[in-house]
Amino acid sequence: MKVVMLSSDPSILRHGSGARKRMERYAELFSELHIFVLGADADERVGSRLFLYGTGFGAVVSRLWMYRRLCTLLSQGRFDAVSAQSPDEVGLIGYFASRRFGVPFQLQVHADVLSPWYCRASWKERVRYRIACFLLPRARCIRVVSARIRDSVVRRFPAARERIAVLPIFADLVAFRRAVADGAAPVASVKKRFRMCAAGRFVEKEKNFLMLIRMMAELRTAIPEATLSIIGDGPDRLRYERAIARFGLGGCVILEEWRSDIHEYFRSFDVFLLSSYHEGWGRVVLEAMAAGLPVVMTDVGLAGEVVKSGVNGIVIPVNDRDAFRSAVEFLSKDPELRAQFSRANVEVVRSFPSDEEEYLLRYRETFTICF
């Protein structure tokens, strides 16, 4: 099977990155895998099966160049599928090129683009919502990363049901299961008894970390021993630093960069928090669960499918700070319930595939419904 893939992730062209390693494994599934990367400016051949193409920089030029180079490639030989990694401008390029040359088009959906919260983020998300509504009923097959996304697509486009495959992003959970508490961790060294953490890119319109910072300002009286570490980085870091300073939370809210030993570090905390406005899946939640952490999260991504409120965590309506604060207070006062959730989470993640080979076969199968 010869496949062309379109992506906007420039880290695919960076040696040693997680995305690059993932593409190298995907290439083993096909006779040839050609990947066009938006916002990158280098071509490379990796072995005999993987071909990488940069399409340059610039909002308009790079997209026109991607379309032109894709059409040139499709005109030179037979391909079995064109796959777009997202239902946005890249998806449009893939759809029109595949239609022009009669190649089946697969659309991959990693974000909950039909969520009302997605559209509220900015004008860009509203435009991409409209693009998604154009592409979803026209794709030959669709791969989504959660049952939540599948259900939202089917509600809007019932005829798409038979063309959808659900396959989350692979998570290597073995290291998290085996991890032991990291006693040298910064938060663990603080003599406080209730330690919370959150993790993700510092992008407020998606992650809503400001809600957690404001919540911590309100919790100082109710839970004076509470601390929160927010692990990650991104464009809104300065915004979070200013909010922490404004509320006088420098002693209990810490912004930390991502760590290579995150699987051990998670075990240093009592609860994992996810405050997102929207998520496609939420792999970091699965990793926290594998490390034995109880979870408080908004009703996004894998909530309801994997994290069931009252069974192995607490699920809160999106952006409901009062309910989130109440859930945190409740868990802080009930160590037995936290232990119950922890045990349940460790059991839940055992059902997820730990064999990457099995996962790769399932990934290849997502293309078969295109034919």
Walk me through the topology:
Layout: E1 2-7, H1 18-27, E2 32-37, E3 44-46, E4 50-54, H2 61-75, E5 81-84, H3 89-101, E6 105-109, H4 116-119, H5 123-135, E7 141-144, H6 147-156, E8 164-166, H7 174-178, H8 186-189, E9 194-199, H9 204-207, H10 209-222, E10 226-231, H11 237-246, E11 253-256, H12 262-265, E12 271-274, H13 283-290, E13 295-298, E14 313-316, H14 321-332, H15 335-349, H16 356-365
Parallel strand pairs: 1-2, 1-5, 2-4, 5-6, 6-7, 7-8, 9-10, 9-12, 10-11, 12-13, 13-14
Antiparallel strand pairs: 3-4
Helix pairs in contact: 2-3, 3-5, 10-14
Explain what this protein looks like in three dimensions.
The structure is a single chain. By secondary structure, the protein is of the alpha/beta class. The protein has 2 domains: 2-170 and 354-370, Glycogen Phosphorylase B (Rossmann fold); 174-349, Glycogen Phosphorylase B (Rossmann fold, 3-Layer(aba) Sandwich), CATH 3.40.50.2000. Helix content is 41%, strand content 17%. The protein is built from 16 helices and 14 strands. The strands form 2 sheets. Strands 3-4-2-1-5-6-7-8 form an 8-stranded mixed β-sheet, with helices on both faces. The chain has a 6-stranded parallel β-sheet with strand order 11-10-9-12-13-14, with helices on both faces. A hairpin with a 3-residue loop joins strand 3 (44-46) and strand 4. Helix 2 (61-75) packs parallel to helix 3 (89-101), helix 3 (89-101) packs parallel to helix 5 (123-135) and helix 10 crosses helix 14 (321-332). The termini are close together. Mean pLDDT is 92; it is low at 180-191.
